[in-house]
Amino acid sequence: AVPLVVAKSTALSAKHGLLIKNRTAFENSRKITTIVFDKTGTLTVGKFEVSKIVLLDKGVDEKELIRLASALEQNSEHPIATGILQKVKDLKITIPKAENFKAITGQGVEATVAGKKIRVVSPGYLKEHKFTMPDGFTANDSETVVFVLIYNKLAGYIALSDKIRPESAEAIKTLKDENIKSILLTGDNNKVAASVSKTLGMDSFIAEVLPHQKLEKIKELQGKGEFVAMTGDGVNDAPALAQADIGIAVGSGSDIAAETAGIVLVNSNPKDIASLILFGKATYRKMV
Ligand code: ADP
Ligand code: MG
Fold first, then answer.
1. With a 6 A CB cut-off, is 146 part of the ligand 1 pocket?
2. Which CATH number is associated with domain 2-45+164-287?
3. Tell me, what's the ipTM?
4. Rounded Cα–Cα distance for residues 275 and 282 (Å)
5. What is the pLDDT of residue 5?
6. Best of 119, 146, 231 to mutate for ligand 1, by most ligand atoms within 8 A of CB?
7. CATH, domain range 49-161
8. DSSP class of residue 278?
9. 118-150: pLDDT as tens digits
10. Could you tell me where this protein is found in the cell (predicted)?
């Protein structure tokens, strides 16, 4: 009888937007005490729109700043890149060629455009490389910001906004009702993370984390006795997903993430995670 109940549950869960790749993951879902959520595309819609272009140096204008950034971003699949490329398209700007493109893991991109070394990077990258934060830096709480560097000069920044998914608040609330803590873990900046976590009533947030730090964070929580589920979409998330007690790959993310995870969240809807847990609890109650 046991396998039958589980088989039925697994089929049902597929209908609810979940792909359970191994039965242990489903069985263990009722033991979860903490869920670590990634932000972009899971708790938020994952569609960035350029909201502001701010100049920090007189050498370039707004169009030139985003034109240079777009040269790099055409080589990236990050949602930030998609947002910047959309804006450039709207402005009917022709994207120049970039050479020696390199992704700076979890922090940005760099390349050479018309002989100039250009970087498009996170505030965390600037701190790490000892750049002084510009006075004109006034991005608001809900904005993601990327800085454009020409050689070693801060030329300006591009602010982008994403929206919280309408289902996220209810998902977090359901988890809270089940005594499950929710933590936001993101490579995005502190302000954005604080704002999303507060809006959704999450227990805490950790921002500006680099890919390897995600793994460390999961270990740390496990060391405190937490049974940890984690969501993620990127190649970068794979080690942390593997370390978590239950790895949940989100939506149309990377194949590597999906391979590593025990569960795939097909519609990227955080409410499906809450359903899964309630469902797991109900299923295994029946079997006792
Ligand atoms: P998350 O944890 O939300 O998935 P990532 O690790 O993908 O975040 O990215 C962290 C940060 O690195 C972004 O918020 C951004 O500042 C910077 N970044 C990453 N990729 C790019 C890119 N293609 N262009 C500009 N900035 C990027
Ligand atoms: Mg990501």
1. yes
2. 3.40.50.1000
3. 0.97
4. 10
5. 55
6. 146
7. 3.40.1110.10
8. H
9. 999 999 999 999 998 887 677 788 899 999 999
10. Cell membrane; Endomembrane system
